[in-house]
From TrEMBL, chain A:
Coiled coil: none
Domain Transcription regulator PadR N-terminal: 16-89
Entry-linked InterPro entries: Metal_resp_DNA-bind_regulator, Tscrpt_reg_PadR_N, WH-like_DNA-bd_sf, WH_DNA-bd_sf
PANTHER family: PADR-FAMILY TRANSCRIPTIONAL REGULATOR, TRANSCRIPTIONAL REGULATOR RV3488
Official protein name in the record: Helix-turn-helix transcriptional regulator
Automatic annotation (TrEMBL), chain B:
InterPro entries according to UniProt: Perm_prefix_1
Keyword field: Membrane, Transmembrane, Transmembrane helix
Transmembrane region(s): 105-122, 134-154, 161-183, 189-209, 229-249, 261-283, 295-317, 329-349, 361-382, 402-419, 431-454
Organism taxonomic ancestry: Bacteria, Bacillati, Actinomycetota, Actinomycetes, Micromonosporales
Protein name in the entry: Permease prefix domain 1-containing protein
Keyword Coiled coil: no
Length: 123, 457
């Protein structure tokens, strides 16, 4: 299964802000975390993640600094700002609304399958 | 292969990858750092899975995707970077480079200020800018180019030997330009004013090339430097003109006459300082104008070729001889200079490995027709000299013509060989760089030898 581009683009900001809300993090670890969270289904490229991080930084949602954690390389860590937290809760509210609506419109997952099969049967 | 070897090799690969990334204007140094760190994480992970380090590197790079895609994505977010390359964005360099560019900046400011002050010094000895026009027109380059050479020598950490040579040459130029008892209205004065800057520019070339005097690459770099320097100085002069217009205009509006100040201080000081600033700009940002000189040559090579061919056809059609006097000879000299410039700057930007193409043929047409035209001019000129005898101006113009003609004739020969796939393009390039000393010797000869030869006429 592949998530469509539009959906990836729309969900990118809340996902990254959500991850950073757990604590400061660097690019590679963010990608790993996203991959883990989605069971490997969301496979972002570097060309997607880093420009996104830079844009969030420009907008003031995150800030970055080069740090050296004990026994590790010097890395560029990103952390969420107050403004980013506000943005995250705003996005959260919006997504809740969307999800809520979707849940009500869609039948449960179990019902979709027979629906498609029935359609194919009719065809 | 030992483990250490593998590690070294890996570091080597990282270094090369970094250089490759840094060539992209969209990706600044901190992006390269960040992406490198990412790449290292990927490699570490793959090595932990049991891959060899070189395999891991390959896969990690492959996963990151093509740099084209990557930099396109970065450019979308950082479009300003593509525009902002030119100026003082020293903030993205690493530590060493940052301090380097800082000290460069300081050295440039010192040299530019030195040049601006030095041109006002003769006034202390009663040489006023508006009275002693001849003195300044002859010596103008001596107030600018030594400072530029000094800046370059400083930047290249030139050894004591080279510095001594530079000082000696500039001294020689200063002495040669001022020691001869020439009248203000003599031809020799005009020739010295025109040739001393060129002769001194060759000394700047010495400072630029440094200790690697024989290297063809370094000489070609100097040719590129000269072209880019010229573009910068023209741009700076344009800006300076606007500044002067507003300075004059605004002060005029409050009833203060600024013309005197502009003429005797701002213009000369600004010009000599701009010489150093332009050199610094070329050194600091080599990549930017580099792209303009080749575009200009590409644009004008066909146009000049058409004009010259049209001229030849008209001459042949009408059977009209070229009306040669000294002014037209100088014009034809300048024409050869332009043709040579077009040739030089397309050489400087050309990939020597590329096979001959249409443009090379065009260039050959351009050089060939310039040669034919010049042969016509020289033919009439020799007749004239036989008739009226020689003057310093005649000899200088004729000598110039011969020096340029020899260069272009052999270039045409080499180009023909290259277009017919019998020679290499590198031969054309080597010829041009090998010819530079000839220009140096000629310009110095005009400054030092011609005046006594003609009894300071």
């Amino acid at each position: 299964m592949r998530v469509t581009k539009d959906l990836v683009a729309a969900s990118a900001t809340p996902i990254v802000l959500g991850i950073l809300a757990e604590g400061e993090c660097y690019g590679y670890a963010i990608l790993r975390r996203i991959s883990d969270l989605s069971g490997g289904e969301l496979d972002w490229t570097e060309g997607f993640l880093y420009p996104l991080l830079h844009r969030l930084e420009r907008l003031g949602h995150v800030e970055s600094s080069w740090q050296t954690a004990a026994g590790e390389r010097r890395r560029k860590y990103y952390r969420i700002t107050q403004q980013g937290l506000a943005e995250l809760s705003e996005q959260h509210r919006q997504w809740e609304t969307v999800l809520d609506a979707l849940k009500q419109v869609w039948p449960s997952v179990g019902d979709i399958r027979p629906l498609t099969i029935r359609l194919e049967g009719n065809a | 292969m030992t483990v250490t070897n593998g590690q070294d090799e890996l570091e080597d690969q990282f270094t090369r990858w970094r250089e490759y990334v840094r060539r992209r204007p969209e990706l600044v140094s901190s992006d390269a750092d960040e992406l490198e760190d990412h790449l290292r994480d990927s490699v570490d992970e793959l090595v932990a899975l049991g891959l060899r380090s070189d395999e891991a590197f390959l896969i990690a790079v492959k996963r990151m995707g093509g740099l084209d895609d990557l930099s396109r994505e970065f450019a979308r977010e950082h479009s300003e970077r593509l525009w902002k390359q030119l100026m003082f964005t020293g903030d993205d360099g690493d530590g060493v480079r940052k301090s380097r560019s800082r000290s460069d900046l300081i050295a440039m400011l010192v040299c530019a200020a030195g040049a601006a002050v030095s041109i006002k010094v003769p006034e202390l000895f009663g040489k006023h800018y508006d009275d002693d026009g001849t003195f300044y027109s002859v010596n103008f380059a001596l107030f600018a180019l030594p400072w530029l050479a000094g800046f370059l020598a400083w930047r290249r950490r030139a050894g004591a030997g080279l510095c001594a040579v530079l000082v000696a040459m500039f001294t020689l130029g200063a002495v040669g330009a001022n020691i001869y008892p020439v009248a203000d209205d003599s031809q020799s004065v005009g020739l010295t004013s025109a040739h001393l800057p060129l002769a001194l520019w060759m000394v700047v070339g010495l400072a630029y090339v440094g200790d690697d005097l024989r290297s063809s690459r370094r000489r070609m770099d100097f040719i590129r430097f000269s072209g880019e320097w010229f573009v910068y100085i023209v741009l700076i002069a344009l800006g300076g003109g606007v500044l002067i217009a507003f300075l004059g205009g605004t002060f005029d509006a409050i009833g203060v006459e600024a013309g005197e100040f502009i003429w005797t201080t701002l213009t000369p000081c600004g010009l000599v300082a701009a010489t150093v600033v332009a050199g610094w700009l070329v050194e600091a940002k080599q990549g930017v104008i580099e792209n303009i000189a080749p575009v200009l040559t590409r644009l004008f090579t066909p146009l000049f070729a058409v004009v010259l061919l049209a001229f030849l056809v008209t001459v042949g059609w009408n059977g009209r001889g070229v009306d040669v006097n000294r002014d037209t000879l100088v014009m034809f000299d300048l024409l050869l200079v332009v043709v040579l410039g077009l040739l030089l700057y397309s050489i400087s930007a050309r990939d020597p490995q590329a096979p001959p193409g249409t443009f090379d043929v065009l260039q050959l047409v351009l050089v060939g027709s310039a040669l034919v035209i010049d042969a016509l001019v020289l033919f009439t000129m020799t007749g004239r000299i036989a008739e009226y005898g020689t003057t310093p101006n005649n000899v200088a113009a004729l000598g110039e013509n011969i020096v340029l003609l020899a260069n272009l004739a052999w270039s045409a020969w080499l180009l023909t060989g290259f277009v017919r796939k019998r020679g290499t393009f590198a031969a054309v390039e080597r010829w041009q760089t090998a010819y530079l000393p000839v220009f140096a010797v000629w310009t110095w000869a005009v400054v030092l030898v011609l005046p006594p030869l003609f009894n300071y006429r």
